[in-house]
Design brief:
disordered C terminus; globular; 22-stranded mixed β-sheet
Length: 619
């Protein structure tokens, strides 16, 4: 780092205030915080924190989120909360036990925690959570037992909550269980499951207390009906976003009531609701609606609904019609002709009406779109890819998985123009026609790719993938799951070791072997996450080598790697004098290392979690 880059000019010769001083001392902490805050990931702050004590102090103040792995020792959490005084978001979705103790420590730490994720727990300790007086966002997805009483306590003790997620409770999660519990009936008055599930009564009580509620996710709660939507519309006047997917008793009329009466509602996500054509014009009145994001999944959407949106003059920013039917090409074209200029995100996954010719017309209406998802549209070929790259100049993320990408077409890469696209994320998994030539042509157009998923593309070779990777020095995330012969992908060209900036590499059930791992360790030294699930040619030797060479490696998945001796790796790491960066390791089989006394000296390495399935142990 030069002084010129810090001060904007050359220092005066002999300046006593600068000469002989460390450059890090020239800038005040506020400037360093601004510089550090522009880093892409908090893991980069770890490197900076080792430079000097001042950088350690500054970087500690820039860590705002923390994910708790497995079952941490109390003293470790206490030290973490002291080290990072600005933490405001904690994710405990992978915690196995000790949830009450964790929340108690949070409440006593003095941290202003605004967001707490308690997903995947058996039950929410609502009385402990009620002590977190700064909480604004509470995520309780996939809870084993969640009922009306829990909602009443949460709403009564945290009336200032702004975001709440109580989606997909595990207690009652399917129509089969509904039948088992008493039959699927449109009349919920005979149901009395308030002690084992969330019902309309719980949502009504919740809505009467949470006056500042902005966002709620009720998906997967099978015992709520249109009554819940009516209560939210009547009581939560500030509500902006609602998700009610997989809710068995939500109907068209409940959705239409919410659209008409929740005047601040901007985002709506629903699925599998049967729409009645005869009542659509009267029930779906968008005239006073503020909606700018609509997500429909697995529904029959008639063109009349699009016409109602157009007549209301709604300018959509996000549109999802995933696996939806009934609508026609002319209907979607009319909608995009009105909202196309404002639209930023469109998902037409699984649409059967899309062809290369129709996408040619639609692409001309998507000049401001940044994300397009057309996964599962089997009639689309490489022609659609190049057409989107040409006609959508702001496009950044494109998902063409499970299409016919790679199939012969009449549109060529040269028609797009070199460096004419901003695409940095491309998903093209499960395309049997993708081959080395396809990758080469894509590489000519997309020069800024940072994330690529090309799993199950059996038409590509190691050489094609290697040449593709070498085109993108900024590539960070690469997935080649089930791509077979890829062990030579990371060979250096002409014996020259060319570094790659990959941070995430997923190669599940591939033919990667120890030799390939050795090359990965030498070329991908910035690797953070490595997934080798089902790689039968990988052995203990290869795993050790990649752990040593990839000094930033945090997570490794070895599930199903039967030739890896996890006990040997564990002992090697514990007894080694080296400092390893690995934090989470998924072993080949269920393995619980030796119990350590958490009140005594910690083990001499940084691994926090060994996990597979339900087997977790902190060491």
């Amino acid at each position: 780092m030069s002084l010129l880059s810090l001060t904007g000019g050359e220092p005066a010769v002999g300046d006593a205030s600068i000469m002989g001083r460390n450059y890090a001392d020239v800038l005040p902490d506020e400037c360093w915080r601004l510089i550090f805050s522009r880093l892409d990931h908090h893991q980069q702050l770890e490197t900076l924190s080792t430079v000097c004590k001042r950088f350690l102090s500054i970087s500690n103040q820039l860590r705002y989120s923390f994910k708790v792995l497995s079952d941490p020792a109390p003293y470790a959490l206490s030290q973490i909360f002291k080290r990072f005084p600005c933490l405001n978001k904690i994710d405990a979705s992978e915690l196995n036990r000790g949830l009450d103790a964790l929340i108690q420590q949070i409440s006593q730490s003095g941290l202003n925690i605004e967001s707490l994720n308690l997903s995947n727990q058996v039950k929410v300790p609502v009385f402990s959570v009620s002590k977190l007086l700064s909480l604004k966002t509470l995520i309780c997805s996939r809870i084993g037992l969640l009922n009306d009483e829990d909602l009443i306590v949460i709403a009564g003790s945290l009336p200032w909550l702004e975001e709440l997620d109580i989606s997909y409770p595990e207690g009652i999660d399917s129509h089969h269980q509904l039948y088992f519990l008493g039959g699927l009936s449109k009349d919920l008055t005979s149901f009395s499951y308030s002690s084992t599930a969330v019902t309309d009564a719980g949502v009504e009580a919740l809505s009467s207390k949470l006056k500042n509620l902005l966002k709620i996710n009720l998906s997967g709660n099978h015992f709520i009906s249109d009554r819940s939507l009516t209560a939210l519309s009547s009581n939560c006047f500030l509500l902006r976003e609602i998700m009610v997917r997989s809710c068995s008793f939500i109907t068209q009329f409940g959705i239409s009531y919410m659209i008409q009466h929740s005047h601040n509602l901007t985002s709506l996500s629903v699925d599998t609701i049967e729409l009645c054509n005869s009542s659509l014009p009267s029930s779906f009145d968008f005239q006073r609606s503020s909606l700018c994001a609509i997500e429909f999944f697995y529904m029959g959407i008639p063109d009349d609904l699009f016409h109602s949106i157009v007549e209301a003059g709604i300018q959509l920013k996000k549109l999802t019609l995933s696996y939806c039917e009934k609508f026609t090409f002319s209907g979607i074209k009319v909608l995009l002709s009105t909202s196309g200029q404002s639209l930023e995100y469109i998902d037409l996954e699984g649409s059967k009406i899309l062809t290369d010719e129709s996408m040619k017309e639609l692409s001309q209406l998507l000049s401001n779109v940044t994300t397009i998802k057309i996964r599962g549209c089997s009639s689309l070929t490489t022609s659609t890819f190049f057409m989107l790259a040409k006609n959508c100049p702001l496009l950044q993320e494109l998902d063409m998985s499970s299409t016919n990408l790679g199939k012969e077409e009449n549109f060529h890469a040269g028609d797009v123009g070199m460096n004419s696209t901003r695409i940095h994320s491309l998903k093209m998994s499960r395309n049997n026609f993708v081959n080395d030539d396809t990758l080469k042509r894509i590489g000519l157009v997309c020069r800024k790719l940072q994330l690529v998923e090309m799993s199950c593309c059996n038409g590509v070779t190691s050489r094609g993938i290697r040449e593709f990777l070498n085109r993108f020095p900024r590539m960070r995330h690469f997935e080649v799951n089930q791509c077979g012969e890829i062990e030579n992908v990371f060979d250096a060209t002409k014996g020259e070791v060319v570094g790659l900036n990959l941070e995430v590499l997923r190669a599940k059930r591939s033919h990667i072997n120890d030799e390939a791992l050795s090359r990965i360790g030498k070329r991908c030294t910035r690797l953070v996450n490595l997934d080798l699930e089902g790689c039968m040619k990988v052995t203990t030797k290869g795993v050790k080598e990649v752990v040593v060479n990839c000094r930033e490696l945090r997570e490794m998945n070895l599930r199903g790697c039967s030739n890896v001796n996890i006990v040997d790796i564990y002992d090697w790491m514990v007894l080694s004098n080296r400092s390893f960066s690995l934090r989470k390791l998924v072993p080949p089989h269920c393995f619980l290392p030796k119990e350590y006394d958490k009140n005594k000296e910690p083990v001499p390495w940084n691994l926090q979690s060994l996990s597979i399935g339900s087997c977790h142990k902190i060491v």
